[in-house]
Amino acid sequence: MSERDDLVEQLEYHVSEASRLRDQLNIGKSKDWRPRGFYTMYHVMAGITLGGIAAAMSLLWNVLGATLMLPDQHPLRIIQVYLTFGMGEEALRLEPGASRSLLLFAGSFLYLATGALLGIPLQFVLQGLLKSAGTAARAIACLAFGAVLWAVNFLVLLPLLQPALFGGNWIAEQTPWYVGLSTHIVFALAYFLFSAWGRFDPSRELAAWAQPHPPPGPASGA
Predict the structure, then answer these.
(1) Is 208 exposed, middle or buried (0-12, 13-18, 19+ CB in 10 A)?
(2) Which residue in 25, 107, 133, 191 could disulfide with 137, CB within 3.0 to 4.6 Å?
(3) If we measure between CA atoms, which residue out of 46, 35, 20 comes closest to residue 199?
């Protein structure tokens, strides 16, 4: 083998080693995963989470109100009334006991799940349409959302659907308008209060531990 061939072979070896070392250095390199547009899946999950929290606040409001104003009724009376949309009038005849407790527990879970789902459109409104709006505008939007949601449910959907499906309009008739409206308003305002937790800012700097670090250069003064 000539000297030239030997040099070519050594060059190819060192080029291959340099490429291998470069690949190893890039393995642990952090990538900027942050989306630049509307992060839909993030806001779906944030809406579900915050909607569940807001629904819990709404349910707690109703339980406290029922305990103070209707001491002769079960604190979850509103859940019992809501269960008529599925059980009919039988839900109102539940006697105290394990069966009623289990149904009220299931009804409370459905109440929270419904609030979690309603949190998704509210999240899209606050973090999408009203992303740059001021605090007052966002609070008013939440109030309007709660009021419109109550009006659509209690004045339109329930009077139409429940009699047709279950033979009675118990929810709209046995839930005072101020109770239903306040429950929806508390849900919307609670969502507004916790909405800061659902913001996503793609322009924020990554945490120091998540940022890529350049390979060490030659020592100064070398």
Answers:
(1) exposed
(2) 133
(3) 46
Q: Which long-range contacts (CB under 8 A, 24 or more apart) does 55-58 make?
A: 55/111, 55/112, 55/114, 55/115, 55/116, 55/118, 55/119, 55/187, 56/112, 56/115, 57/186, 57/187, 57/190, 58/115, 58/183, 58/184, 58/186, 58/187, 58/190
- Answer whether 183's CB lies under 8 Å from 61's CB: yes
Residues in the chain where the model's pLDDT stays below 50: 207-210, 217, 219-222
Whole-number pLDDT of residue 26: 66
User: What is the residue extent of each domain of the chain?
Assistant: 40-198
Q: Is residue 95 exposed (0-12), middle (13-18) or buried (19+ Cβ within 10 Å)?
A: exposed
Angle of helix 40-69 versus helix 177-194 axis, rounded to 10: 140
Q: What is the pTM of this model?
A: 0.74
